[in-house]
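Regression check, magnesium ion case 402:
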Amino acid sequence: MKTVLFVGAGRHQRRAIAQARAGGLRVVAVDRNPEAPGLAEADIAEVVDFSDVDAVIEVARSHAVDGVLTISADRAVPVVAAVAEALGLPGIGTETAYVMTQKIAMRRVLADAGVPQPEFAAVRNVHEGYAALDRVGLPAVLKPADSGGQRGVFRLETADDLERHLHVALAESPTDEAIIEAYVEGLELNGLVIVRDGEAFPLTLSDRLRPPGIGFGVGWIHVYPATIYADQLEAAERVAVHAVHALGLRDGIAFPQLLATDDGRVLVIEVAARIPGGQMADLARHAVGVDLIEIALLQAVGENVPDEVARPRFTQPLAIRFLTASPGPLPTGTVTEIGSLEKVSAFPGVVQADVYLSVGETIRPVRLDGDRRGYVIAIADTNVEALERAEAAAQLVDVVVE
Ligand SMILES: Nc1ncnc2c1ncn2[C@@H]1O[C@H](COP(=O)(O)OP(=O)(O)O)[C@@H](O)[C@H]1O
Ligand SMILES: [Mg+2]
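Current build output:
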């Protein structure tokens, strides 16, 4: 029996841990939170803060693990790579892990490779911030060099916005670095790219629609297939694969985030080296019948991923509507009552829905990924109809606030 180590054991990892065990693997899991839901699911649970890489390597050695992985946790990606390297296990390599999690390093590699992307500049202080704005212009986007989930991400309309937000963006970066980029108007696309033995192919491309206002970077709706026309879709696939190769990923699941502009260009926002959060694994399952977790588990232990596992089995249009407030189907306020999801689940086309809320907590206007408090996934004959269904079903979610 093979043993795998899960780095991080939160909500996203719990199901994957259960699946690994059901598939005959022994699971060791680490998380700094003793209450992390995935720890209870593992064969062996160790309460370790994974930012302490040496401690994680120690756990991996002591249990003689055959593979190491994480699901959806960007901060764990460099740790997984370091553990794999230290123990001589299959992994993406620490260099690739670095350039796929550090936005400035990533932009430099992509620039060298000629991958289309927004103008950018690295920023450590207000002085450099002004120089960056001179270079990229306004509006711009300010973000921590190495964070995620839209934490510390701001759209800058004026130079005053820079002074207002820079300290927050820097504070979200463990290395006190930020990046300023030209704000690119366009339709955001999420890709899933499977890489085996250095060969990459795009599995899905979907629209990632975003709310207006301060939450401009939050994915609140996914629509599959993407709604752009064939030429730009092909360009998007080419750019996604080009970026993945440039960043040096040879075996893994990549998550390219792209912007498709009205004038037909496709630019890279970033490319992560992991299974995305935000129900993208569910998207792959319902839309093309591919189980990303199965792929990640096989790759973690260095087994070959056959076409039957990696390639699409069908194409099913769908939409995912996240439950957000202001804008979104949820109300803002303190939750007093959460009704059942029965009506939502019974709505035509709905294949999956969930609410993660508890009585007493406060629902705020959507600003971060973490403000998504549930989702509805609907399928239909077309992506447009799937979106209508998901929107309509989301209105049936019954949450009372005061
Ligand atoms: N240069 C840009 N132009 C327009 N929108 C952007 C730009 N950079 C980021 N965004 C928006 O902000 C979101 C978060 O940015 P991203 O770089 O992916 O950071 P995170 O690590 O928080 O996901 C993106 O998904 C996109 O919607
Ligand atoms: Mg992102």
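Comparison notes: Residues 317 and 383 are 5 Å apart (CA to CA). Residues 118, 141, 143, 148-150, 153, 181-184, 188, 210, 217, 257, 259, 269-270 surround adenosine-5'-diphosphate (ligand 1) (CB under 6 Å). No diff flagged against the previous build.
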